[in-house]
Amino acid sequence: MEIIMAIAAGILTMCAVYLILSKSVLRIIIGTGLLSHAAHLLVMTMGGLKTGAAPVIKDGITQYTDPLPQALVLTAIVISFGVTAFFLVLAYRAYQELGTDNLEEMKGTDTHD
Amino acid sequence: MINLPLLPLLIPLITGVILMLFPNRLRLQRTFSLISTFLTIVAAVYLVYRVRQDGILTVTLGSWPAPFGITLVSDMLSALLVLTTSLLVFFVVWYSIYYLSDLHQRFYYYIAVQFLVVGVNGAFTTGDIFNMFVFFEVFLISSYVLIVLGGKPAQLRESLKYLLINVISSALFVMTVAFLYGIIGSLSMADISQKITDINQPGILSVIAVLFLIVFGLKGAIFPLYFWLPGSYQVPPTPVLALFGALLTKVGVYGILRTYSLFFSHQQEFTHQILGWLALATIVIGVIGALATRDVKQILIYNIIVAVGVILYGVSVMTRQSLEGAVFYLIHDMLIKAALFLLIGVMIGIAGSSRLKDMGGMIKDYPLLGWTYFIAALSLAGIPPLSGFIGKLLIVRGGFEAGDLVGPFIVLISSLLVLYSVMQIFIRGFWGTPKTYSGPKRHLMKQLLAPALVLVAITVLYGVGTEAVRPFIAQAVDPLVDPSIYIQAVLKED
After folding, report:
1. Does any domain span residue A31?
2. Facing B154 at nearest CB: one of A69, A90, A110
3. Which of B86, B202, B275, B437 has the fewest CB within 10 Å, making it most exposed?
């Protein structure tokens, strides 16, 4: 099972890298979304996918899944959610101000202070 | 005071939360942030004193025993870095009161600065690798806000790139932690350090070491991962740039220093050699950039990259002497970079432009600014009585003693070229034919110069008082050379 999940995370990373290397800002943001999916999936997989009950204490159950990666993923999800929200608003503002969503056209080194 | 290591985090955190309640009361915002950053300095000084007295201090949050709960660890290295951070932020806040427009300050500027301090101090203090990721995100998100605040087209453009690079490196950080967790099964840094020697899987651990190098290298701007830095650091206003240049890259350097001394000591000939070559390449790239440009901001921005290279070269040699040099140079560089950015901020404020061709003959009207800059520039290059000397001396000596003949020469030649690049600013900006200036902040010269002057005075004291600082640095290097001190302090096995 871990092998399938590792391949899935790999494919997600592959798509993310492809999208991040494109020119349009929105495609890049979709790419970062896929990249964080891949990272979260990897955390779950690396914790081990052995079968067991959900990590809620109940009588009569001796084997649980590892609760630590789930907590890590939950933290990483909200962080990437916050950053993605900021990224989307930033892209929207940049589109309004610069009039383009093409990264090739966002060049120059003029100084502002 | 068992919770002492928490204080430098809690004070800015609580201040940040309180400041959110009245974003429009500017006077109150300023006094509050000044008082709280001053209190942070006091707490940090007391923390250094206590660590000097009692050795490494640890706090286990919620009283869960060490490998299971989150531990905050203040050894001398992290205490000194926390102190340096608090000092810098105090001066930068003082400077921004005059430098930034009221409108700029009204939009949650001080709140973002406070949260930046929380993140940086937290990253220096934490003893848990995932917790370090969280603190990295805290200061990164604050830095996103600070870099884009103002909303000029160039800022929007460059912060898109800055944000993208950091999102990618954060995802890589999570993946690396996942790999490490898959192999070790623990997140506490002391516990990992203990188990990593027993596990004896050098192949996969070297891969993880290189992954950590990529993650922290992206934050700390080493070759070939520095490409985002010159553009991104060009756009924010100078006080923000001083914060970024002094603190953010150094957190990446600290990450490398910590992981490479604590975790990856099993295959040094592979991992530390890679680090050494990359550090030297970083120095070369930084020097080329600093010599090529005629823009005062860009010259100093490329000097950040040079300094990162010099510190990491000291780390890669991994002898006691070179590590002492690296820690000396790390603290010196944080102080002097902030001071230099504040000084050129005054120059830009007078001239109204950051290009050298718009400046000239400033020494005539602004002698104090000129000679302060001169001292700061000599200090950056490492002229003996000043603060940059002893760190570089120890790094170079450590390199020679480890049998490396190329590295120390590159470090020495880089000092010369760094001196040349910053003297360009002095020669072209302060000498030459005087010009009439109509920059927007000429009348604020005195108020702006005061914090920069005090900061330069502190770096001079740091250089002159090397003998007094030395025992602290030696104590900071102890757990880097011998991780068992760190492990024992955290896991309390006796």
Report:
1. yes
2. A110
3. B202
Q: Average of pLDDT values for B359-374?
A: 92
Question: Residue B185 region, left (φ>0) first, then alpha (ψ -120 to 50), else beta?
Answer: left
Question: In Å, how far is A106's CA from the nearest CA of chain B?
Answer: 6
Would you state the pLDDT for residue B90?
96
Cβ contact, residue pair B181, A110, below 8 Å: no
Half-sphere exposure of B300 (CA within 13 A, CB side): 31
Sign of dihedral through CA atoms A28, A29, A35, A37?
A: negative
Beta pairing partners, B188: B128
Within a domain: residue A112? Answer: no
Instruction: Give the residue-averaged pLDDT of B289-303.
Output: 94
Instruction: Please report whether residue A106 resides in a domain.
Output: no
Which residues does chain A have within 8 Å of residue B162's beta carbon, measured at their own beta carbons? none
Q: Is A107 a member of any domain?
A: no
Domain count along chain A:
1
* End-to-end CA gap in chain B: 23
Q: Write out the residue range of the structural domain in which residue A27 sits.
A: 1-54+63-100
Distance CA A55, CA A66 (A): 7
Is A47–B179 a contact, with Cβ atoms under 8 angstroms apart?
no
Inter-chain CB proximity A97 and B151 less than 8 Å: yes
> Which domain CATH number covers A42?
1.10.287
Residue by residue, DSSP assigns A13-30 as HHHHHHHHTSSBHHHHHH
